[in-house]
């Protein structure tokens, strides 16, 4: 807006370009008396009338002005309009390349030499030659500076626009990544807890007449699982709000919470054994969350798809460089293909979501049937670049 206001206060370019020729014509009419005015006016017009088009065709205008100046030298008339040659040289330097500037400067300097040889007082050639040469050099240098400054400002503006586009792209990528992370978290939380609640509900219905005590315990476990699901959802969504107290009271789950997870799976009807080797204190929080979600998803798939009587085993090995995760079950057959999402399902669910989590730590997830029966999921998370990608 400020630039528009500044442009509004300046004269239009055609008016400004025509102002100098008009002033020079008025000057020659005032300062020259008869019989010179017809020749002086004609030469002045030839020198200055091309100048209004100097921005659009700098080389052509310079050629026309130089030709008029040469005719002026042949006729032997000195005019104030000779300044038009400097203006044309400045325009060539400001709007053309180095080669054109050097050529135009050489032409003007040749004219300076001819003019000084003809009109300089006898014995005083050097002072006017040096003075006019300095003026020619100044005009060329000013034009080159204008061209350089214009190119620099254009480069700065282009770079600023490019940086702005890159920032917008980065913001869009960050938003998409955050949406993917939230979708993955919600899938893991909802799928796991609903699967446990469904299994516990079936167990409660089965035992409500034969063993009311066991049915009551299952119902209490269902209630606790629902509360845990709500807590996990609030905790995951709480990081989107600044100053959310619930996220601080309930830190993200990790390797330390795997024991509670396996106990929950046992209560839901999937006997699960947990083995954790090595200290996990040095493991970053995001990597610990990744381990927890991988184990949670693998056990949830086993609970949903494996037949009754199946048992699972979770092995986690922590070292200073990596974390190895293995989840296996002893089912008589591998889980059906429903463990992987259908082609129409959105990305980030089931096995694709597990692979994304593992890939964040340069891990390759392996999932498939075991030689002796059952199903296995294993991966190795590298900690050298821990935190490079959000889990």
TrEMBL record:
Residues 329-352 are annotated as: Disordered. Its EC number is 2.7.13.3. It comes from the Bacteria. The chain crosses the membrane at residues 61-90, 126-144. It is an enzyme of class 2 (transferase). Residues 146-180 form a coiled coil. Residues 178-243 form the Signal transduction histidine kinase subgroup 3 dimerisation and phosphoacceptor domain. Residues 289-381 form the Histidine kinase/HSP90-like ATPase domain. Residues 332-345 have a biased composition (Pro residues). The keyword Phosphoprotein applies. PANTHER family: NITRATE/NITRITE SENSOR PROTEIN NARX-RELATED, NITRATE_NITRITE SENSOR PROTEIN NARQ. This is histidine kinase. The lineage of its organism: Bacteria, Bacillati, Actinomycetota, Actinomycetes, Kitasatosporales.
């Amino acid at each position: 807006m400020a630039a528009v206001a500044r442009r509004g206060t300046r004269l239009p370019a055609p008016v400004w370009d025509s102002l100098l020729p008009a002033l020079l014509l008025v000057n020659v009419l005032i300062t020259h008396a008869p019989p010179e005015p017809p020749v002086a006016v004609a030469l002045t017009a030839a020198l200055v009338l091309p100048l209004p088009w100097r921005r659009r065709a700098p080389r052509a205008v310079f050629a026309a002005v130089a030709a008029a100046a040469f005719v002026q030298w042949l006729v032997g008339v000195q005019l104030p309009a000779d300044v038009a040659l400097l203006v044309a040289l400045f325009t060539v330097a400001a709007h053309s390349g180095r080669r054109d500037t050097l050529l135009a400067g050489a032409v003007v300097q040749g004219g300076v030499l001819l003019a000084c040889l003809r009109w300089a007082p006898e014995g005083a050639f050097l002072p006017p030659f040096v003075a006019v040469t300095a003026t020619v050099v100044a005009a060329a240098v000013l034009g080159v500076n204008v061209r350089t400054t214009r190119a620099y400002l254009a480069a700065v503006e282009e770079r600023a626009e490019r940086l702005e586009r890159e920032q917008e792209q980065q913001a869009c990528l960050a938003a998409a990544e955050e949406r993917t992370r939230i979708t993955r978290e919600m899938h893991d939380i909802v799928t796991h807890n609903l699967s446990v609640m469904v299994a516990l509900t079936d167990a409660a219905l089965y035992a409500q007449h034969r063993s009311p005590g066991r049915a009551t315990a299952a119902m209490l476990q269902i209630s606790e699982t629902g509360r845990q699901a709500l807590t996990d959802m609030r905790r995951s969504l709480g990081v989107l709000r600044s100053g959310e107290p619930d996220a601080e009271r309930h830190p993200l789950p990790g390797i330390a919470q795997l024991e509670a997870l396996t106990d929950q799976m046992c209560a839901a009807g999937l006997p699960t054994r947990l083995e954790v080797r090595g200290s996990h204190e040095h493991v970053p929080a995001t990597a610990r969350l990744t381990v927890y979600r991988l184990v949670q998803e693998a056990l949830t798939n086993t609970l949903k798809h494996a037949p009754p009587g199946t048992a699972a085993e979770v092995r986690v090995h922590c070292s200073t460089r990596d974390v190895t995760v293995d989840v296996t079950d002893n089912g008589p057959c591998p889980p059906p293909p429903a463990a992987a999402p259908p082609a129409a399902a959105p990305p980030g669910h089931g096995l694709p979501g597990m692979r994304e989590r593992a890939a964040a730590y340069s891990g390759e997830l392996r999932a498939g049937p075991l030689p002796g029966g059952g199903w296995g999921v294993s991966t190795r998370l590298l900690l050298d670049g821990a935190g490079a990608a959000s889990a």
